[in-house]
Sequence to fold (813 residues):
Amino acid sequence: MNPRPSAEPARSASVLLAAMAVLIGLAGVALAVAGAWLIALGGSWYYLVAGLGLAAAALLLRRGGGAGLMVYAAVVLLTLAWALWEVGLDWWPMAARGDVFFVIGLLLLTPWVARALALRNAAGVGSARAVLGVALVAFLVAAVFSWMRDPRRIEGISPPADATAATASAPVGPTAAADEWTAYGGTGFGQRYSALDQITPQNVSQLEEAWHFRTGDVRGQPGDPEETTFEVTPLKIGSRLFLCTPHQSVIALDATTGQQVWHYTPQIARPLALQHLTCRGLSYYPGAAAAPSAGSAPASASGSPAACDAKLFMPTADGRVIALDPASGQPCPAFGGGTGQIDLWKNMPNVKAGSYYSTSPPVVTRSLLIVGGTVLDNVSTKETSGVIRAFDANTGALVWNWDSGNPEDTAPIAADRTYTANSPNSWSISSVDEALGLVYVPMGNQPPDQWGGARSEGAKKYSSAVVALDLASGRVRWSFQTVHHDLWDYDVPAQPSLVDLRVGSETVPALVQPTKQGELFVLDRRNGKPILPVNERAAPQGAAAGDVTAPTQPSSALSFDPPALKPSDMWGATVFDQLACRIAFHRLRYEGRFTPPSTEGSLIHPGNFGVFNWGGVAVDPRRQIVFATPASLAFVSRLVPRADATSLYVQGKERPNDSLPALNENFGAPFAVKLSAFTSVLGLPCQAPPWGYVAAADLRTGRVAWMHKNGTVRDSSPLPLPFAMGVPNLGGPIMTAGGVAFLSGTLDQFVRGYDVNDGRELWRSRLPAGGQATPMTYRGADGRQYLLVVAGGHGSLGTRTGDHVIAYALPRR
Fold:
């Protein structure tokens, strides 16, 4: 009789068992060795014990019988108990700890493994399989319960509209009627709020694409920096939309049909070594003839002969501001002394092409154009000035200049002088209250960001602060510093939102300032005094050589500051990369928020991506609430001692003469700095999800009404898995009087609508590219309320590039 038919299955089962034993043994050795390293660093004993258990199980599996399965079952139960002790019923942290063990356990229960074990030693195989099965079922039950829970979710209801506040927050000056969007944040108040109420929680699910425009401007042209982004929020004036593209073109569209009206492309000086190439928006001046209280656009915005009474202001990447006629898209010939533009390099020190320009739209008042700009981050200590300048909106003549290095002298600078070099700048969007005569400027830091041993007095006072400047003179009326002696790139990134709050029986003019560290400072915008309490909390000490740290840092009663990281917060796709993240965590310096940068490497949480960034927040003046999009990603900051002022430490290779030096070289400072996201060997964040939320809070009390994780990893993972893990957002939200908020900036390619009342996601639409811009809304000539979304992607975030402008509306009746 031929024995091969019966011998082959046994031989195959034996090979499978041997392979399983080798796999488990190797896993055990890896866990044990790395676990011993972790113990030496002061970490958990679990990995060493589990590794030794796996190694023992592997040896016993080779001998046959049930002993190997029993030991493996013990490892599974140990892992379950350890996971529940460390993270409770929280699905994603549990999955990272147990997924490998569960899958291998299922393989060990297959009939082929049982047959191979029994052939070698039949003793106890059946009972051992039963015990292992019970252990796996226990893990599965815990996983099912954890999948149905969200321990970080806050459920609640937003406050209702306050009738006494319904008219308290009408901005004064050149503002928008309900059907328009005349400034980056809707109005100069920067609320990102619309009084339109046609779209409601009851009908938002019916939104459909009304029109779709392609600009033709896409990332990838010669000379484009990595961070080439389509971040614009268009304006709606009269019957037209106005927007700019990353490569500096300006486009006018019919707001109802999406048809192009005109297109203007300035000639940009080349070459430019840029860190960023973007245009967040244009600014609109209604003209000297416009009535101060009028909400509608002057006739020239729709094509009358009154050329250039009204103006669009376009900041360019080569350091200019161009004034355009909204009717024709042509430069205004009488502006800027007959040039149609302002040269922002005038009176600037350290002139280097591409090292200064405005990525954000200037502020416009009845008579002024107020301009800040971005200064190169962390390239050298010899950068240009961060001066804030006010120009006559009709002529372009300089009216005043506020230089934080010379803050008392705001009269227009003499022709033969220059502004203070390397002074703090304002790269984001400012807000204005013309009734109070103040412009509110969010300030950045003095380069370099991570070492401040040689900072000037002006930098010490005004870095990472919101500064209120007098519109008439440019003098400082008040300032509030959000971070003392900032060493973390926690510059003030977002436009302040202005709102009148009902505090008791009093209406208080307030300013809401979002920050990268997660604080929302609610201040009296008349004097900068906190409305919600601000406390100074002790901060970690021990700065790098030659530097100091502030003893305390301010903390607001309204804060989305993420909890301090713990070893148990480390995460990964498997127990192995999770263990690697734990080792990395223990090797880094980390003492909570405001851990100083160090040569050994410091963990910075939240990182300089920020809890909030340039997108800011949306404020509902009637409900007196804020709609926020807090995010949380940790970064690693490692100082690299410099031997001289010219060697490359971050890039580590030769570069073309006309290219930008590597970010964070800090030529002239004692240290370069290497910055990176805190990720595992697989490229996943080392901290457990969620990484992004939507939330609402009462601005009068600081109470968070609700907070839900937001977004999926569909467009961030190798496989398009729609796991709702909560992802970061870049780009702001808007709110409407209809009770719906909108957001498009999450790392997955969706625009979403939310019920402002309880935070439920009511609607979503798939975008053709990343939506890293702030949406806006307006009323068209057909009477419909439109939602406008720009989808063009973000270079450094890796979202899909595009050139899309998409309008949504309810179906025609």
Summary: Helices lie at 4-40, 46-63, 67-87, 91-108, 111-120, 125-147, 457-462, 575-587. Confidence is low (pLDDT under 50) at residues 1-5, 166-175, 291-305, 652-659. The radius of gyration is 29 Å. The chain is about 20% helix and 25% strand.
